[in-house]
Amino acid sequence: MKIAITGKGGVGKTTVSALLSHLYASEGKKVIAVDADPDANLASALGVSGNELKTIKPIAEMAELIEERTGAKPGTSGNIFKINPKVDDIPEGFGYKIDNVTLLVMGQSKFAASGCYCPEHALLRRLLKHLIVERNEIVIVDMEAGIEHLTRGTAEGVDAFIVVVEPGQRSIQTAISVKNLAKELRVKKVFLIANKVRKQEDVQFIKNSIGAIEFLGQISFNESIMESDINGLPSYKASPQTLEEAVTIKKSLEKLV
Predict the structure, then answer these.
(1) Pair 34, 43: CB distance under 8 Å
(2) Number of domains observed in the structure of the chain
(3) What's the predicted TM-score (pTM) here?
């Protein structure tokens, strides 16, 4: 199972990613959890805290690794470098292990905003394709809003593309944009999760606004999830209700893929 999770910033992508990672890992399955959001918080949601957080270094900031694999120093553009570097040993060699979960924090190229294609970008893009297309583990990718950095070949390897939405117009607008991008990249299975739901009318509003996207389920608004971040607790320990709602979503997902 290869799952990519996206949505507007703050809607709960990371919480959903952490919950699903925990549920699959608790079944004894090997999970690779990928934090591909520049605002990286997946480690905290999985329960990594304190000094341990400081030991997790984004792949994009591993200068020696990037130069070794691509043949060019990070931060350079316009030079010759390998666009298909070796990446198959990176999860085992550079991932952070949490029980059956291997966490990879991708980070972001400093040149990403300028559109330059640099060694860091080449390594991250190749690694993401390797994880989605070539690995046998459960792979769950916590993505930034939008999916522009996925290649068509990588996107077609995703078994489930999940858009997390909260009640609100800005969240809806982002979800519609993601839906259109997914169609352009020929992603066949796009699903919807309603998060921070306070009443059933919230779910109906989201369904009516988004249109024809398969609905996986909902997660209720819960103060405990917000407090878990302050207290350094993983999302799955914060609220039994939220965990049970995630179990229902997981079951719905497995019926549809």
Answers:
(1) no
(2) 1
(3) 0.92
